[in-house]
Design a protein that fits this description.
The protein is mainly alpha-helical. 76% of the residues lie in helices and 0% in strands. The chain has 22 helices and no strands. Helix 8 runs antiparallel to helix 20, helix 16 crosses helix 19 and helix 18 packs antiparallel against helix 22. It is globular and about 70 Å long. The chain starts with a helix and ends in a 6-residue tail after the last helix.
Length: 433
């Protein structure tokens, strides 16, 4: 009975979110509450919700303060010299332009937002592609590839995986650092090869690129007003300390970003009015994700508290051959990027992944391995081509190409990145083959 009720709950969640009948926030709360009441748990449902929210609170806090922290140091201009140096370096050499596009996207994506990455990187690099007649599908690909492989402890997929399985984000991320480095080497290798191909196609020589004038950016009046260029190195040092301490696991990630946000405000905007304005500027993005995470806490709290998740895993385990069980993380890793075309992040990480993880656990596996396999492609390398994410349409819109063109050109490279990282994760023992 509980297994069937749990299955119906997850299917209802998937259908409601994927058909846009309900927003993820509403679906994650109302559907499990209704299921719990149908299951006869009554007011005990509230206890399950509170338990789930308590478990999710550190993750939500980390995300809120990460958004505000990176917003503040970006407003202060920490990224400006880096962006300008990249633009000066690339000149009009296609190879440098393509690799510079990947590097810029990688740096901008430090705030964890794919949309911001595309909004900054593509307009900065597109004039160079247009001027030389370069293939704009390459620009769409390399920024997508860089953002996709650059999964970080404060990005959406890692946060969702952490929230769904109630494990620290650093426990998920730290074993994957070398895997990500291999993925990034692949990103720049692809950028180099595609850049060389464009040089050959266009018949451009290195001398032509070296003699070209510098391509620069123009900041708006509002951007100029909040810039603090004299504090560049201070912001770089602060960011390095915050990220280094957080990734090391010495101090909890939520605490480090809370401290970092306070220090960034005091350093760059000592006035109370300015501090309030900077927090307000980034509050919408932080609140939207925090509300989703708390709603997810309610969902997972009910699914666990009622026993529906355990019942589903127990039933599903009967259909999994024992000899296949140890291969589940590797199979999930290989399938993770294509799964982005079928499931949005909330549906997958809060609806599908916990069931897979519990089935794997029933055979003696560690659920965290399913989470690690999932983030190697599900809405990481997969999000920039998935029709389920708005960022995909942002990429094609800014580059001026069609969705079909982008998907046909980019998917083989994005999938290759996932396969490479999955194999590497298995080779170094993150999870078994």
């Amino acid at each position: 009975m509980l297994a069937l009720l749990g299955l119906a709950t997850i299917l209802a969640l998937l259908v409601a979110i994927m058909t846009n009948k309900l927003s993820p926030l509403v679906a994650l709360i109302i559907i499990p509450v209704a299921a719990s009441l149908i299951g006869g748990f009554g007011v005990e449902t509230t206890k399950f919700i509170v338990s789930g929210i308590k478990d999710i609170a550190p993750v939500a806090a980390m995300f809120v303060f990460a958004i505000v922290f990176f917003g503040i140091v970006t407003d202060a201009g920490m990224m400006d010299p880096i962006i300008d140096r990249i633009l000066r370096f690339v000149g009009l050499r296609p190879t440098r332009i393509v690799m510079g596009s990947a590097l810029l996207a990688l740096i901008i994506h430090l705030d964890g937002s794919g949309a911001v990455t595309f909004l900054v990187t593509i307009p900065a690099m597109l004039p160079l592609f247009d001027r030389l007649g370069m293939d704009k599908r390459i620009l769409a690909l390399v920024v997508s590839l860089a953002a996709g492989v650059n999964f970080l402890p404060w990005t959406g997929p890692v946060l969702r995986a952490s929230a769904a399985l109630k494990v620290p984000v650093t426990d998920i991320f730290s074993p994957l650092v070398f895997v990500q480095i291999v993925g990034l080497v692949f990103v720049f290798s692809v950028a180099y090869v595609l850049g060389k191909r464009e040089e050959k196609r266009l018949g451009l020589t290195g001398a032509q690129g070296e003699s070209a004038e510098i391509h620069g950016r123009v900041l708006s009046a509002e951007e100029e007003k909040v810039r603090r260029p004299h504090l560049f190195w201070a912001n770089i040092a602060l960011t390095a300390v915050i990220l280094g301490t957080m990734i090391s696991g010495v101090v909890d990630a939520s605490v480090m970003f809370m401290i970092g946000t306070v220090l960034a405000l005091i350093l760059n905007y000592p006035g109370v009015k300015d501090q309030k304005a900077r927090v307000d500027a980034h509050a919408k993005a932080a609140l939207m994700m925090a509300s989703i995470l708390f709603a997810a806490g309610a969902f997972t709290g009910i699914m666990r508290g009622t026993g529906m998740l355990t019942a589903m895993a127990t039933s599903a385990a009967g259909f999994v051959p024992a000899e296949f069980a140890s291969h589940m993380p590797f199979a999930v890793g290989i399938a993770s990027m294509p799964l982005s075309m079928l499931f949005d992040p909330d549906s997958y990480y809060f609806g599908v992944m916990p069931v897979i993880a519990h089935v794997y656990q029933s055979f003696g596996g560690a659920p965290i391995e399913i989470a690690q396999a999932s983030i190697l492609g599900q809405m990481t390398t997969g999000f920039p081509v998935s029709p389920l994410t708005p960022a995909t349409f942002l990429v094609v819109g800014l580059c001026g190409i069609s969705l079909g063109e982008h998907q046909k050109f980019a998917i083989p490279y994005l999938f290759a990145a996932t396969v490479l990282m999955t194999v590497m994760a298995a080779l170094i023992g993150v999870f078994p083959f």
